[in-house]
Amino acid sequence: MALDIFSFKILDSPILSDHKCHFQRRFPIFSLYYAFASLWLPKRTKMNFDDLQILGIIGIEEKIGQFRRKLLEMKRLVILSGAGMSAESGIRTFRDMNGLWEEYDVMEVASIEAWYKNPALLLHFYNDRRKQMIESKPNRGHMLLAELEKSYDVKIITQNVDDLHERAGSTSVLHLHGELTKARSSVDPSLIYTLEDPEMKMGDKCEKGSQLRPHIVWFGEEVPAMADAVPIVESADYLCVIGTSMSVYPAAGLINYASAFAPLFLIDPNPPASLPRRVQVIAKGAGDGVAELVKKLEALQK
Ligand SMILES: NC(=O)c1ccc[n+]([C@@H]2O[C@H](COP(=O)([O-])OP(=O)(O)OC[C@H]3O[C@@H](n4cnc5c(N)ncnc54)[C@H](O)[C@@H]3O)[C@@H](O)[C@H]2O)c1
C-alpha cells in the first residue's frame, strides 16, 4: 500500500517523473544503482523481493509503468452532479419544490444574509440536512458511477453537499458548494473541521474563538472550488451532467469549458425543452440514466 501511494505521488507529478528520467539519462550511475541494489543486495542481505519492494529499491519503476499505461489508456469522464443525483436516495431537490428546500424559502436558509440574521435557524436547518444524509444511502446511480472507475478516469464535480458519492466509493469528488460533514470558522475560511457530532450548536467555536458555521457555500458567497473545477472540465473526454437544473451560477457556467470534441450527456427526467444539439439527452432518473450512459460510453469506445 505504501508503495502504491508512493507510485501515485510520482504519477501525479509528471514534472517529477520526467525530471527523474532526465536525471537517469544525465547520470547513468543512478540506473546503475538500481541494477546493483536489486542484484547485489538480495544476495548480500538475504532480503527477498517483497522486502526490497517495501524499501522502494525495486518494483517502483515497474509499478509506475503499469499505472501510467493504465491511466493513458483510460478516457477521462467528468460528471457534473446536482440535487437530482441524490433524489432516489430520498433527499429532495429544491427546484422540484418550487424554490422551497424542505419547506423553507431557499434564501432564508441558504444565503449569507440569513446567517447574519438568524444563525441558530441555519444551524438547525443544516443539522436536519446532516441527519437526513446520515440516514440515506447511495442509490444505484452513485454506485454505477463508482463502478465506472474500473474503466474510466472518473472525476466528479458536485453541487451536492451530501457525501453519497464518496460513500458509494467514488475517489475523486470535488464539492463546489461545500460539505455537510464539515464545519468552518466564521472568521477564517481556511479553518475547516470534520464534524464528529452531527449536531452543531450556538457556542461551538473555532480555535480563533469565532462561532462555527456549516461548511457550505451560500448564495452571496464566492465559490473557491471553481478554480479547481474549470481545468477538470476542460480535460474531459466525455462530460455528463446529472440532476441539476443548471440554474445556480457560477456552477452552471462550467459546461461552457468543455472541449468542442467531448461528447456531452444530460441525465434528467425533466430535461429543459431547448438544449444545444450536441447534448445527448437521457430523460431518466439517475439510476436508470447512469446505466444507459454506461452503454452509450461503451458504444463510443468501439
Ligand atoms: N443532495 C444535496 O446535497 C442537495 C439537495 C438539495 C439542494 N442542494 C443544493 O441546492 C442547489 C440546487 O441546484 P441543483 O441544480 O443541484 O438542483 P435543482 O433542485 O435546481 O435541480 C434538480 C434537478 O434534478 C432533476 N431531477 C429530479 N429527480 C431526478 C432524478 N431522480 N434523477 C436525476 N435528476 C433528477 C430535476 O428535474 C432538476 O432538473 C445546489 O447548489 C445544491 O448545493 C443540495
Provide tags for this entry.
302 residues, alpha/beta, Rossmann fold, SIR2/SIRT2 'Small Domain', 3 domains, 6-stranded parallel sheet, 3-stranded antiparallel sheet, 11 strands, 42% helix, binds nicotinamide-adenine-dinucleotide
Task: Please provide a written account of the structure.
The protein has 302 residues and is of the alpha/beta class. The chain folds into three domains: 2-73, no CATH class; 74-90 and 138-177 and 224-302, 3-Layer(aba) Sandwich (Rossmann fold); 92-135 and 183-216, SIR2/SIRT2 'Small Domain'. Helices cover 42% and strands 16% of the residues. The strands form three sheets. A six-stranded parallel β-sheet has the order 5-4-1-9-10-11, with helices on both faces. Helix 1 (2-12) crosses helix 5 (60-73), helix 2 packs across helix 3 and helix 9 (140-147) packs parallel to helix 12 (286-301). The longest helix has 18 residues, at 28-45. The chain is globular. The two termini are 34 Å apart. The structure holds nicotinamide-adenine-dinucleotide.
Topology of this protein?
Blueprint: H1 2-12, H2 14-26, H3 28-45, H4 49-54, H5 60-73, E1 76-81, E2 100-101, E3 104-105, H6 106-109, H7 112-117, H8 119-135, H9 140-147, E4 153-158, H10 164-168, E5 173-175, E6 178-185, E7 192-194, E8 212-216, H11 226-234, E9 238-242, E10 264-267, E11 279-282, H12 286-301
Parallel strand pairs: 1-4, 1-9, 4-5, 9-10, 10-11
Antiparallel strand pairs: 2-3, 6-7, 6-8
This protein binds nicotinamide-adenine-dinucleotide.
